[in-house]
From TrEMBL:
Organism, as annotated: Geococcyx californianus (Greater roadrunner)
GO molecular function, one term: protein-lysine N-methyltransferase activity
Gene assigned in the entry: Eef1akmt2
Methyltransferase domain residues: 54-183
One CC-aspect GO term: cytoplasm
Lineage: Eukaryota, Metazoa, Chordata, Craniata, Vertebrata
Name of the protein in question: EFMT2 methyltransferase
């Protein structure tokens, strides 16, 4: 998968998707495809996570994951993105779907506002990947991401991450402080040169 990295790239991409949505009502790309959203929702359902649990979608983009969560009965949903165009787009998608209870905010997750706290579930589909690829102090930004995650997620809360840049072992290392692995979720496998591997890693962590 190939995520644009710089904020100007994100903004430009979401401005295009916003225009497309206004023109033809298409919300745009679904990061990692629909099966990644189904995988997340299935896990929440299997764990009997209460429908009123507070959920934060980190880097919500077009907000489609939140729409699917709302359709599955979840009622306490918040999406953040540092691209104002992304939040504009997700607001329009929310409006079209009639999901007025979804909260959307422009936020830089590396510098979250104080009211962004106390979430029982945080979900990331590609945002940590994008931060990891940032050419400007990627190591420092990854550390700040973990610190931010610790501040917004309640103790014993769940963190579900989907990544195409990091292996399970690498993610375990990145989130070793403050988190423990609960489960690796099955993802599609590929075969290349006779070796089988996963192009996507999906893990569930619990905040210590």
């Amino acid at each position: 998968c190939n995520n644009p990295v710089l904020s100007s790239s994100w903004d430009a991409a979401y401005e295009r998707e916003l225009q497309t949505f206004q023109d033809i009502g298409d919300a745009g790309e679904i990061w990692f495809g629909e099966e990644s959203m189904a995988r997340i929702i299935r896990w929440l359902e299997e764990q009997n996570v209460p429908l009123d649990s507070s959920v934060l979608d980190i880097g919500t983009g077009n907000g489609v994951l939140l729409i699917e969560l709302a359709k599955s009965g979840y009622t306490n949903l918040t999406g953040i993105d540092y691209s104002p165009s992304a939040i504009q787009l997700s607001e329009k998608v929310r409006e079209k779907e009639g999901m007025s209870n979804i909260k959307l905010k422009v936020e830089d997750f590396l510098d979250p506002s104080p009211e962004l706290s106390g979430f029982e579930i945080c979900i990331d589909k590609g945002t940590f990947d994008a931060i990891s690829l940032n050419p400007d102090n990627a190591v420092g930004k990854r550390k700040q991401y973990v610190k931010s995650l610790c501040s917004v997620l309640k103790s014993e809360g769940f963190f579900l991450i989907t990544s195409c840049n990091w292996t399970k072992e690498e993610l375990l290392d990145q989130f070793r402080e403050g988190f423990e692995i609960l489960e690796e979720l099955p993802t599609p496998k590929f075969c290349f040169g006779g070796r089988i591997g996963n192009s996507v890693t999906a893990l569930v962590f619990q905040r210590k």
